[in-house]
Task: inverse folding
């Protein structure tokens, strides 16, 4: 997984609350274990008409937002099904960071596991950012995970908070196996203690 330290890019405004994972990627597109190519199906029902043509007023079909690498939405982003494909589709499209007042908990965890930074900001700040992106010429946002701050198009700086363990995973580009290996001594110590307390659990594995 690519580390996330600092990022600057075009931010696309999506002023919707409760954007669920079925809207992010519909169920008919999740029957694959491949992460590549899923960006083509991101927000498919919102991006494309039934005949396959682009819906012109959808934000990711408008310049310059079709080149967006940051997405800004309202509260409870990623609710609904726990499908990890939703984050895979966002990442494959090129989204490295999502900004919202709140996220569904499983979606938030899936973001961390796949190198996408979920940034929680106060609702008032998100509203202000959404207005800037629609109104102002500058559409770029800078995110600094090392300093835990985000710089809006008007130059204002806002701090954000991320769990320290999750922050380390993103900063170092760690995957689940690598994280587990960092705790192999603790795992071995637990196994040794557990063999004494519950020996019957381990008999078939001895």
Result:
């Amino acid at each position: 997984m690519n580390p996330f330290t600092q990022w600057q890019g075009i931010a696309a405004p999506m002023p919707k609350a409760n954007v669920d994972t079925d809207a992010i990627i519909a169920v008919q597109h999740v029957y694959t274990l491949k992460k590549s190519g899923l960006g083509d199906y991101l927000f498919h029902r919102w991006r494309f008409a039934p005949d396959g043509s682009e819906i012109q007023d959808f934000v990711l079909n408008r310049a310059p937002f079709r080149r967006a690498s940051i997405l800004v939405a309202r509260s409870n982003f990623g609710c609904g099904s726990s499908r990890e494909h939703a984050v895979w589709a966002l990442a494959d499209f090129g989204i490295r960071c999502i900004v919202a007042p709140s996220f569904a908990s499983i979606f938030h965890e899936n973001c961390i596991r796949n190198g996408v930074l979920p940034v929680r900001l106060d609702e008032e700040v998100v509203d202000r950012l959404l207005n800037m992106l629609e109104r102002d010429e500058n559409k770029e946002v800078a995110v600094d995970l090392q300093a835990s701050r985000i710089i809006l198009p008007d130059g204002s700086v806002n701090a954000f908070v991320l769990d320290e363990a999750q922050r380390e995973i993103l900063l170092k580009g760690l995957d689940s196996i690598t994280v587990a290996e960092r705790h192999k001594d603790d795992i071995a110590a637990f196994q040794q203690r557990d063999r004494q307390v519950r020996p019957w659990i381990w008999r078939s594995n001895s």
